[in-house]
Amino acid sequence: MSEGSGSRFEPIALSSESTVVAQFEADPTEATRYQSESALEAELIRLLVEQAYEYLPITSEADLVANLRAQLEALNRITFTDREWQRFFAEKIAGERDGIVEKTVRIQEDHVQLLKRDDGSSKNIALLDKTHIHNNRLQVINQYEVPGRAAGADVPAQRANRYDVTILVNGLPLVHVELKRRGVDIREAFNQINRYQRDSFWSGSGLFEYVQLFVISNGTLTKYYSNTTRAQHLDEQSKGKRGRKTSNSFEFTSWWADATNTPITDLVGFTRTFFAKHSLLNVLTRYCVLTDDRMLLVMRPYQIAATERILNRIETSTNLKQLGTPAAGGYVWHTTGSGKTLTSFKAAQLASRLGDVDKVLFVVDRKDLDYQTKREYERFQKGAVNSNTSTAILKKQLEDPSARIIITTIQKLSTFIAKNKGHAVYDGHVVIIFDECHRSQFGDMHTAITKAFKRYHLFGFTGTPIFAVNAGTGGNPALRTTAQAFGDKLHTYTIVDAINDKNVLPFRIDYVNTVKVGAVVDKQVSAIDTERALLDTSRVRQVTQYVIDHFDQKTKRNQTYALKDRRVAGFNALFATASIEAAKIYYNMFGRLQADVPEAKRLKVALIYSYAANEAEDETGAGLLGEEEFETDLLDRSSRDFLEDAIQDYNDMFGTSYDTSADGFQNYYQDLSLRMKNRQVDLVIVVNMFLTGFDATTLNTLWVDKNLRAHGLIQAYSRTNRILNSVKTYGNIVSFRDLETETNDAIALFGNKDAAGVVLLKPFGEYFNEYADKVTELRERFPVGQQILGEQEQKAFIALFGALLRLRNILVSFDDFAGNQILSDRDLQDYQSIYLDLYASFRRTDRADREAINDDVVFEIELIKQVEINVDYILMLVEKYRAAKGNGEDREIKAAIDRAVDSSPSLRNKKDLIEEFVDRVSIDEDVAEEWRAYVAAKRETELQRIIAEENLRPEPTRAFVDTAFRDGQVRGTGTAITEILPPVSRFAKGSNHGAKKQTVIDKLTAFFDRFFDLA
Description:
Type I restriction enzyme endonuclease subunit, hydrolase, EC 3.1.21.3, 37 helices, 6 domains, Rossmann fold
């Protein structure tokens, strides 16, 4: 960095090589230095050169490859012969079959490649030096050119492209920066990178598929993300899901920040910190994780900061001979949902590589967490950890020098210590990491562990620490708070930080008082009487009916999205009850109230609970939830029999065979957990299970009929606010108890004193007033029926209507919005029709024009899809049209049908089908039956035409199409598509097999889009 830059930042703890700066303060003069995109690019390059990057004026692949050769020769102290280089480049760097995944694996896991020399000898060639990172050389290029190319026999057309700025590490392009001018949405830089991947990153030798990280910036805002976010996003788009947001979309880009979690958004500050040579090289070589399913995860700054502080504490306390004391450890406060498992894995992995460390123990406090954490660790690195099912296995692992990282439970570790006095492992250098280090029983086990082990570091992760204010009064007074048990707080990332960064969603809380409890809540009435009154049959019926009536609204069942190659509608929910007795009563009531509902429309309700010991005084003081174990044999006979019956209901629903035996119940837990994650279960009634340690991104609503406070409240609420896609905008809490004070107190405790206004959505009135202003402006500036002339006015309309759609998306979750939409359904449809027409014209096939427009137009098509018209609504209008046919009233109804179709993104390409059906609908036939028959006939006719036109095999084609309609997408890969093509050799001269295959895929995809969701 340059002298006198005005920015002040310092290393974390004791190391000048910390990846995340301790605190960053931007120079206010930096904000006025540049405006245009070219000036932005020039400033970025200047700053990089100032930080000892070498600028290379190369813009062609030949120059790029020549530089790569020179850099690898310098890194490896070797001179390739021309033949050696050609062979190494073709086989080890730019293999014809290699794509993004293969090249990412090479960088992350296989960065040393074997060169076979001309003399027959072999030599290891490193693409990166991950041990001594400053041996790697950083260079920067800009305006790299990829020439255009016409489509060939088996290759698509390639557009000419120029890339903004690329960082080369040892000659390989590993970081790409895409810039947009100030004032332009940085999503357009994200979209630009998508276009490059589609059009040109694969071109030539495919070196740009080595890019691991992308940086997008408009000068004011800057974010980064990994290559698989982009690759998976495109892959999902290519499978018929175009336009839908996924977990790999823009929502998963990240801010860079300092160690106080203050985002560093301006490009100047970002460049001085993220692009500091040691920071960038650390991120690339240490803080990326390639998962078992080949997804590249890049860690966020708070995760990196916490990991480095743990590693730093291990090293410094070892040097200072503080092993076995609180000074050798500490705790990390990272809010629930912020990715503690990834942070702890990386900390454990890097700690296990420290030469002096013998073992890393990762300790969880529940069997279900043991199962879940093992699965997560295995996802990060296959075989990285050793889990155990018994204390005997734990003993073997502790005695095995090759078992470096071990996952176990507190209970197993405590049993091992009790049975193995004086074991040799106690003398080893051990790092012990506790997940969710808040449990009260930890107090006794803490004493046992610290007495047994001699040379240990104790680290804890928690989203909800125990402070003096929420500590209980029982147990060892020296171990009541997290700091007392673990030592210093090493890093903090609160719920407020996570929501501000959009790493978790805000909460939307409704307090519903269905029955006035009155004097029952008086403190003089015993708790059991209070709960008995709250379980009055009348109240339980009202609460249950409220859930059933509002379930679709809260879980957004009118909106669909892609989930693991399936299309699903909306989200699912938990219902938290105060006791096993309450859970049983509610389960029965749901069954009773849904008895007359057709099975296809019933909520799929499951029940789970197990035995929990009475809560200790210090547990209730901290608001801790009772610990439910898997020992169902400890349940009373009535509760176990009821649970057995409920599990049998589940078996009948899903064709499974679980029960309440020890193994049967654990398997039931795991299957139910998986079905929740896959959105196959609608609602699970729980007491405490699933309220902590359970993550399902498809879960968006928690119905609460139990008292919660402090730790337990935040843990329970946080089940709902995991990011999934743009349809899921917040976590829904619907409370049937008055928890407002407890909620505000918990948020203040685990966020900050002003947290309530940040964590919760604003009141209905604030959103509604803004919405009303937007509707007024829309009506006055763009009256319905009046043409919008000129590009500037069209852009203004797009921006205004898009803002209105975003507000409406929030407001529809408020009960108060019903009947107060201001904008009539008809006007909304008319405006949507105009919006969709503009979308179609701005996204026309002329790509050059489209790119020019893309710089300053962002469409909210996803939000229109959330309120779009469906076929049932159209058929209802057709029914009216048929009834009115011939009496002069049909014109208006037909116009309503046209408006509805025009306003729907998914029905516009079916307009001719609908219009023809309306014209031919008969007087006395059932409309729904007639529609189904009409669609079936049309579908068959059009499919026969495609088969005839493309000379396809009829039966395999029909099977292929049936599979597409079953799975919700046309699969363009695999053998199924090739089996339907006419018999022609793909190698015969002029066969053009690839082009033929693409034509068939395009036609079948258009056919699928036209008829999907019509039956």
